[in-house]
Structure formats: C-alpha cells, structure tokens
C-alpha cells in the first residue's frame, strides 16, 4: 500500500516526474529504474510520476509502461505514491492504459490534456470523465497548454472536480490569476507543474509539486514546502531564490535531456534518450554544470 494521504494532499506534497532509464542499447533498464526510484524516495519524495513526459512516454510501448510501473512499485510502492501517466490524445487508448495501470497496482493516474488534435472544452470534459470512469484509481489532471495546444478552462475544471475520482490538478499553465480562481472554485488539490512557480503557486493555494528538478534537489523542495506550510515564508523564499539557477538551468532545453545529463553527472541511472530526443552537446553540459553548481547541487 502507498503511504496514507488526505483529501488535501492525495498524493503527498513532493513528487518527481521520473525519467525512464534505458540501457546503452536503448532497452528499458528496469534495474536502473528501481535504483533511481529508491534514490528519489530516500531523498524525500512522497511520490513518483511514472510514464510522464519526462519519462519519455511518447516513445515507450504500452508493455514497457506496465513493466516500468510494476518495477517501481516493487522498489518503493510500500512507501511512496506511484502515479502512472496514462494520458494520450486518444480517449480509448487512454482508458486501456488506465485499466492496465490499475491491474499493475498503480496508486493513481496522471492524465494530460489531449494534444495536437485540439478538442473543445466539451471534448476535454468527456475525455477526462471517461478515463476517470474506467478505473477505481484517483486521477490527477495535467493542464499544460504549451504542449497540448489547449488549456483546461476553469469552468471545465470545476465540472471535472465533481467526479469522485478526479481529485487533483497538475498546473503547468503559468497563469497565477487563473490558478487562483480554479483552486478557489474547484476545490481540487493543486500541484505545481512548473518548477519556477512552485513557491508562487503555494501562495495561491497549491499543496505541493510535481517536479522535474526534484531529480537533483528534492531535499530543498521538501524544506521549502514544509517551511511555507509552517508559516515561515521568509525561509521558503530564501530556498526558492537559492534554487533559481537550478530552475533555469534544467530548462534551458528540453527537461528530460538536462535531467538525464544531470543524473549521469551524479553517477545515477539514466542512460541514453530515445529519438527524437538527443543528448546535450558538450557546451550545454558545461552550462548545466555551472547552473547546478550555482544552485548548490553537488556533482
């Protein structure tokens, strides 16, 4: 069983959207995934998102996705929430992935807005509702219009929040005003999906983070959210400002590219990327080292 949760923090407060380690020949590295998952939970994560964008989900097969969830559950499922990314731009395929994740034992689902085909809000509502209807697992929506091309409007979020299993939203919309209204009106547990806005989103009602930089600074993220919840906004702000070079450096290019480079620099499982992603150049790697060092990350 996963750690206990509350309606306010159904997946905990600090989660990392985990990369998918591959072997040198590009195959799934399940042993590496288990070692990385254990490392991240040891560092202070309450949960891990598996098979998300940072997990290179567009280029892993359905079978690989199930194998990965199963392996991570074996490694850390008794002490962390293991949330499976199942969102696609095909509702039926997403339903199949949701049911497979439930059979495998996942503790929850992350469902991204359908991308590329740009459905209207009614289409989004029916898509998310159908997926939530298809399993008994709690659902975290994922609103990232920069990737999907379509935002989940506040009215749609409010409608979706009426579903008993839609309990949270990962917000990568980058709009604190819209987030404020959606948090107030929907009652969903709100998770920052944009590391630079982790602290600002807490200030308008978010409960935690789904982070990429959590691969390298989980203890600092946990200290920041704990300080904020305890009322020590000054300390939380100090941590936020210390981490600014990390937030910047990890997103100078695509996040999975920099994350795998950072993990390799630390001797942690990562491996190569699958096309169309590519490794960082030598110059980009040197800049990443500078950014991480400026944020206090030990390499």
From TrEMBL:
InterPro entries registered for this protein in UniProt: Aldolase_TIM (IPR013785), DapA (IPR005263), DapA-like (IPR002220), Schiff_base-form_aldolases_AS (IPR020625), Schiff_base-form_aldolases_CS (IPR020624)
Molecular function terms, GO-annotated: 4-hydroxy-tetrahydrodipicolinate synthase activity
Keyword Nucleotide-binding: no
EC number, as in UniProt: 4.3.3.7
Catalytic activity: L-aspartate 4-semialdehyde + pyruvate = (2S,4S)-4-hydroxy-2,3,4,5-tetrahydrodipicolinate + H2O + H(+)
Pathway: Amino-acid biosynthesis; L-lysine biosynthesis via DAP pathway; (S)-tetrahydrodipicolinate from L-aspartate: step 3/4
Top EC category: lyase
Cellular component GO terms, alphabetical: cytosol
Record GO biological process: diaminopimelate biosynthetic process; lysine biosynthetic process via diaminopimelate
Superkingdom, natural source: Bacteria
Annotated site residue numbers, Part of a proton relay during catalysis: 53, 116
Function per UniProt: Catalyzes the condensation of (S)-aspartate-beta-semialdehyde [(S)-ASA] and pyruvate to 4-hydroxy-tetrahydrodipicolinate (HTPA).
Protein name (Swiss-Prot/TrEMBL): 4-hydroxy-tetrahydrodipicolinate synthase
The organism of origin for this protein: Streptomyces griseicoloratus
